[in-house]
Design brief:
elongated; about 150 residues; alpha+beta; two-stranded antiparallel ribbon
C-alpha cells in the first residue's frame, strides 16, 4: 500500500480569521448608518402620530367646550375624555414633555426638554409644518423647546 501524504487542517489560520473579522466590520460600518436613519424615521413617524392626536383632541375639545383645554394650571380634567392621559402626561418619544403656551399666544402646544438633535426636529417640522423651525407655525421657542401655534 502506498500512503499519500495527507494534510489534515483542523483549524483556521490567523489570516483567515482576520479576513472574516474585517469583512464583518465593513458590513457593520455600512449597516449602522442605515439603522440610524430607520430609527430616526420611526421616531419622526411616532411623534408625528402622537402630535396629530394631541392637536386633534385639542381642536375637538375647543369646538365642543368653547375654550382650550390647557391653561396655566395644566389640562382640564375633562380633556382626558378626548385623549388618553398617558399621551399628555408621559414622556414623548423624542424625550421631554408636552407643554402649552397661553401667555405668548392664544394657544400653542409643544415639547420642552426634548432629547434629540435639531435635525430630527427639522424632520418633524417638515412632517407637520413647513420644514423650517425659524418660520411657520412650529418654531423653536427656547433651549430644547419648540411650540406649534394653534391660535395666535
Amino acid at each position: 500500500m502506498h500512503f499519500a501524504q495527507q494534510s489534515k487542517r483542523r483549524a483556521f489560520t490567523l489570516l483567515e480569521i482576520m479576513v472574516v473579522v474585517i469583512i464583518i466590520g465593513v458590513m457593520l460600518a455600512m449597516a449602522i448608518p442605515g439603522f440610524k436613519a430607520v430609527r430616526e424615521r420611526s421616531r419622526v413617524a411616532a411623534f408625528t402620530s402622537d402630535f396629530r392626536a394631541v392637536k386633534e383632541a385639542i381642536n375637538r375639545y375647543s369646538l365642543e367646550e368653547g375654550h382650550y383645554p390647557i391653561g396655566t394650571g395644566g389640562p382640564s380634567a375633562d380633556f382626558y375624555e378626548y385623549i388618553r392621559e398617558d399621551v399628555i402626561t408621559g414622556t414623548t418619544v423624542i424625550g421631554g414633555n408636552w407643554t402649552a403656551d397661553v401667555d405668548t399666544y392664544i394657544f400653542a402646544i409643544g415639547v420642552a426638554d426634548y432629547q434629540v438633535d435639531d435635525d430630527l426636529i427639522e424632520q418633524i417640522d417638515a412632517a407637520v409644518d413647513d420644514g423650517n423651525t425659524a418660520s411657520g407655525k412650529m418654531t423653536i421657542s427656547g433651549p430644547k423647546t419648540f411650540l406649534f401655534v394653534i391660535e395666535e
